[in-house]
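One-letter codes give the sequence; the integers encode the fold. A sample entry reads:
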Amino acid sequence: MDIEQNLALFQELLCCGGNIYTWRYDADGQLLSSNCPHESLFGAAFSFLGCKERALSIGRKSGQPQAVGTTFGLLWGVDFVCRDGALERMYVIGPVFSHNVSRQDIENGFRHYAEDEMTLAWKHRLIRAYEEVPIVQHILFTRYLLMLHYCLTGEKLDAADMAIQQSFADAAPSAAKRDRHRVWMSEQALLHMVRSGNLNYKSALNDSLLISEGVPVQGKDPLRQAKTSVIVFTSIVCRAAIEGGMPPEAAYSLGDAYMQSAENALTYDELRAIPLQMYDDFIRRVHRAKQKPKLSVPISRCRDYIEMHPEEKIRAKDLAKLVGYTEYYLTRRFKEETGLSVNDYVQQAKIGRARVLLQSTVLSIQEISEQLCFGSRNYFSRIFSEIEGCTPTQFRDRKNGR
């Protein structure tokens, strides 16, 4: 396909919707072309604010379209052309704001970045120019990125395929009137997938991402707004999982872990992946709960305790005391009903929590090992590799698109 011809048409279409510019970089991050009249200013912003470096890292490791942004809501969309697994070109659209941003928001946002290369004069130029940056709702920006990807590769992606900051991670208020009934119907479809443990949730998720604007809260801190939206979404998914058969203590414990990860996020990039990981995690756990054979009350109680307390050192004799069995009888009954030994079940529960921590936190491998009572990092890595087929570091890199 003729990429340059397609891109030229795409640029013309974008211009019809406002001042949304396109940029083309080589594999080393050198700018090759742009139609932005403020090329030096916004090009420098893309670089100085760390977005170009993150974008190139994404291109070299996953090559999937994404949005990269700043703490004060300035966003770029990036996509890539690769040859034989190697990055060849990076294409960028933007910058845009996903919501109304004040001059004070931008000034406050600069405090999160190193000032080595950002002179006071350059900051003032960017602050003066911010009014020229268009505000584009995340739904429309998602569609622009889908269009760009099709122009570059001929591949049609759904919104759910993209690692872009999606609706429930985007709390920006919309000036457009929200169709509350459609949003409610979309939300019900999402929650039904959780209650039923339906692994074929992609269609419902994609429809929701192209309808809902997230929680329409107002606030001075855009990142705070986004965190609120993630926390609210996690809360309703957690309750749907309980309705679907997940034990309440296990569901609340898992939900708390994701909400804390959202609260700890320092940037949109850190926050972006959490809601999708959380949604998938809850659905898979409900699915597993529905697939498990019916257990006796004592063994079910032991199973729930294991899954609710992965941070504890759990031994068969402690579980036996919990349900009033001898250790020998408990281990035999547990293996008969679950198909796993107590130790194997405990290890699988701990590795399940480790997957969540690796995907949604910045805790080190050593810290995760200690938190889950593995005794040593080497032992944790060995058990993780036996169950997952890769090391914790490889798992985290793969999930983060590295």
